[in-house]
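Design request, tokens follow.
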């Protein structure tokens, strides 16, 4: 009987912990406008924007898990990429300066 009670308490604690973790996670609608805002609110983006007035940010593509954005510079008749950027289902912003080869290429944008 004692083991059953301990097991039940452990399950209840585990479920309570899961509830706390989910309640701390904010809902993020994976939409193009929201993804652009997420990137624009990052310090990294702000620092670039202050330094380069010709900074560009626009959505390149979207799939079920990510919105991919182009971060670069308007050079007049052409653009130059600064980084590959993506925003995931949870609103996490990641980037890489090189063409992404695998998941390890992506770093969190601060």
């Amino acid at each position: 009987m004692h083991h059953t009670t301990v097991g039940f308490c452990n399950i209840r604690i585990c479920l309570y912990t899961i509830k706390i973790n989910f309640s701390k996670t904010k809902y993020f609608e994976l939409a193009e406008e929201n993804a652009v805002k997420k990137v624009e609110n990052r310090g990294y983006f702000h620092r670039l924007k202050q330094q380069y007035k010709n900074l560009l940010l626009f959505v390149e593509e979207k799939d079920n898990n990510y919105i991919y954005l182009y971060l670069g510079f308007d050079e007049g008749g052409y653009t130059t990429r600064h980084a590959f950027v993506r925003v995931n289902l949870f609103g996490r912003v990641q980037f890489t300066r090189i063409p992404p080869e695998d998941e390890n290429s992506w770093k969190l944008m601060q």
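Comment from the thread starter after seeing the answer: thanks! The two ends are 51 Å apart (CA to CA).
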